[in-house]
Design goal:
This is Porin. Helix content is about 5%, strand content about 50%. It has helices at about 5-20, 165-170, 280-285, and strands at about 40, 50-60, 85-95, 100-110, 120-130, 135-140, 180-185, 195-200, 220-225, 230-240, 245-260, 265-275, 295-315, 315-330, 340-350, 355-365, 380-390. It is globular and about 60 Å long. It has a single domain, classed as Porin (Beta Barrel). The protein starts with 5 loop residues before the first helix and ends with a strand. The chain has about 400 residues and is mainly beta. It has a 16-stranded antiparallel beta barrel.
Length: about 400
């Protein structure tokens, strides 16, 4: 299977070497997490360097006896830590606009130094190249576009965190931070139905790895029709090979904004994905693998309505109320675990694009069966979070 990717990889690398390039096309302001007010002009070849970041601190309290602040059931612990202050993210980002075509970026999360740093801390590290609106390239470590949540930084989502399906498909190499190459662009930007596309080929063994762990690669494609600030439809597909076995993933997403009144609007996001759960498959002992990896299929769907009241009171810009519901099953054909999550949240947004934010919410997880001593256990977490973007 991996031989099928050689022509595509060769073509992309030749374009990267022979032509000029840059970062992802400038998205709508709501998607942009890079600040514009920390720019320093330098003489010579480098035109501009910008610095930014986000800080998230939270208080978490578990409302279920025997379940700690991480949602892990600990039946044998003498005293379970059921409330704690913590630093969720402390990200720093630097972007260098080397020329009108080349851009380099690095993003690190210093909060991950609090635990095991293997495969962590470094999030983005890539060089991008802009040929024109329709043809752009990125090579390095980045998030390949394979759904709605890949288009947003976590600090501007309308919930407490990314969805369960995002992390599951990320651990299987389709989403989150991966190492590879991407080609993307936009068409019909001024028409009623603008179009965007993205093609990526990645190692598929997640971030901060010395090299691929097999000879297989994962290829993904996304086509987006419409404007996410009005109504858009996204189609996602991927295929590849893991340890010489074929794997796939598909998905569809819908998003839009519905004006309800001069100061009220409803933001809607919904996404469905299905694909092989090869991480689960290869984690099983050989004696329990009764079928090929193609029979181990995970799927998930979520809906996220967010009511926003726009206000102009000193630095307060909006008051928002959201409720995300998600259904996720890690193995459809072998009596897998079903996880249902309910995440209500109230948010106060300050400054532009969530420059400051206060969030209060709950994460309610319900499983079809509890497994003592694990995170696969019913839990109810109360979360208060403060965020600052700079």
């Amino acid at each position: 299977m991996h031989k099928r990717f050689l022509p595509l990889v060769t073509l992309l690398l030749c374009c990267l070497i022979a032509a000029p390039a840059y970062a992802w096309l400038p998205p709508p302001a709501v998607r942009d997490s890079t600040p514009k007010d920390s720019t320093r002009l330098l003489p010579g070849f480098i035109k501009k360097i910008s610095f930014g970041g986000v800080f998230q601190a939270r208080y978490t309290g578990s409302l279920v006896r025997g379940v700690d602040v991480n949602g892990v059931h600990q039946p044998d612990a003498e005293e379970v830590v059921r409330n704690s202050f913590s630093i969720k993210r402390a990200r720093l980002q630097a972007k260098a606009q080397v020329s009108d075509r080349f851009t380099a970026a690095v993003l690190i999360n210093l909060a991950e130094f609090s635990g095991d740093t293997k495969g962590k801390v470094l999030e983005n590290a890539y060089v991008s190249y802009r040929w024109n609106d329709a043809l752009n390239f990125t090579i390095g470590q980045f998030r390949p576009s394979f759904g709605l949540e890949d288009l947003y930084p976590v600090d501007i989502i309308q919930s407490m965190d990314f969805s369960n399906q995002y992390y599951a498909f990320g651990s299987n190499g389709w989403q989150s931070f991966q190492i590879g190459v991407s080609m993307f662009g936009a068409f019909n930007k001024d028409s009623k139905v603008p179009m965007k596309y993205a093609l990526s080929v990645v190692n598929g063994n997640n971030r901060n790895q010395v090299s691929d762990n097999d000879n297989g690669k994962l290829g993904t494609a996304r086509l987006e029709l419409g404007d996410m600030n009005r109504l858009s439809l996204g189609l996602n597909g991927g295929f590849g090979a893991v340890k010489r076995q074929s794997v796939y993933a598909v998905g569809v997403d819908v998003s839009g904004v519905i004006p309800l009144a001069p100061k009220w609007d409803l933001q809607l996001q919904s996404e469905y994905k299905q694909g092989n759960n090869h991480q689960l498959y290869y984690a099983l002992p050989d004696s329990l693998r009764k079928e090929p990896v193609s029979r181990y299929i995970m799927s998930g769907v979520y809906i996220l309505p967010n009511f926003r009241y726009k206000i102009n009171f000193h630095k307060l810009t909006s008051v928002e109320v959201s409720m995300r519901y998600e259904y996720f099953k890690d193995d459809q054909k072998h009596d897998g675990t079903v996880r249902q999550s309910y995440i209500p949240m109230v948010s106060l947004a300050f400054l532009k694009d969530y420059g400051g934010r206060i969030q209060l919410g709950m994460q309610i997880d319900q499983y079809n069966r509890d497994i003592p001593g694990t995170k696969t256990h019913n839990s109810n977490l109360l979360i208060a979070q403060v965020q600052c973007r700079f």
